[in-house]
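Q: Got a minute? One more chain.
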Amino acid sequence: MAIDDKLVQDIVTRHTYGTWRPQKGWKPLHIVKAEGSVFYDATGKRFIDASAQLMCSNLGHGNQAVIDAICKQARELAFVAPGFATTVRAELATKLLEVVPRGIEKFFFSTSGTEANECAIKMARLVTGRHKIIARYNSYHGSTATAAALTGDYRRWFAEPIQSAIEGVLHAPECNTYRPEPFASASAVIEYYEYMLRNEAHVAAIIVEPVVGTNGVLVPPADYFPRLRALCDAYGVLLIADEVMSGWGRTGKWFAIDHWGVSPDILVTAKGVTSAMAPLGVVGTSRKVADYFEDGWFAHGHTYESHPLTLAPAVAAIGEYQRLGLIERSAALGESVVGPKLRALAAKHPSVGDVRGLGLFWAIEIVKNRATKEPFGTFQDKFARRPMVIDGLVAELMKRGIYAIGWMSHFVIAPPLVISEAEIDEIVGAFDEVLSLADAHVTG
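A: Always. Here it is, folded:
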């Protein structure tokens, strides 16, 4: 039986929770259809998905090969306990070996990126016999206890002191070439990591997003990851690459870490592995990490681990990335289309302080003053629940049929990798109009 639009909204708001927000005033848009790079609300209005939902629908909406894989697997074997071997589990492991960074050889399958990070941290602590983890500010690693403790952005603050009971998490600066303060350079950031390692015992791992995601699409310089890798090796610390958002062609490589020719000890990914058409997280480890558990106890697992209905769409999705040449397409569109068009907007609008990105993963950072780089909003503003200029600009984009993530003082432009150039032009045109509204708030 069909339910009308208002009733759907009323039921959803009254009987389900909206995440990362107070519940009062939440009125989610009722979405009824999605295909390719667009989706539609209950009135039939079309929206271009400029952020691939939560930077996850990399293949676009409704990829038929992935749909078929889910249906086929449901008919053949919908579920079996993870203690059994399945054909699809072997198929996905084999397929992953074709695309993951060199040296990653063994996998654990969870149902989200958050869960995958929980597993990765537990593994690092078991393998090294140490308990401290260094994460970064302006990072996000998930919402469960350990993952929230790792997270550097303001979402961690709301959970404190609950998640602060997770001992041994230290935070270090991220690498932000637009806002390097208090450090003069990325080189100084690496030197700070070394300072920490000299003055801390029992450090098991450093966890990083190779390209920071929601918190700014922060792309480090060429020597950052080679130096961080060497530093980890020198101190016997594992390097964990959180590629939940930056993997699967988003930056124009299979995984963002590939841009720097560095192999992590543990790779964590999710989102684009199934193009978000099924909930799957993946933890990939080096053989050195895997060998520890030959005799060491692998103290992790859950009912839905290696769930066949999550693995089959991943096999199909990897095949689609390959068949359609989407990794290469992401790189080409970023270099020749998206990057130049966004930089042209920056040249036109004084509210744009910085444009940065790789592949189809970009940020437009807006500022009140280019000289001082004063932002329009901060974590402190959000935590205090002050009105945010970025939220009003996001609403203006939605009026124009463009869905894009706005975060503090920047937009995340990360459309499906199948997006057309005509759709990119629509996105850029809408931003041109909306940035004019931001220009009115510029102070210098």
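A: The longest strand covers residues 361-369.
Q: Perfect, thanks.
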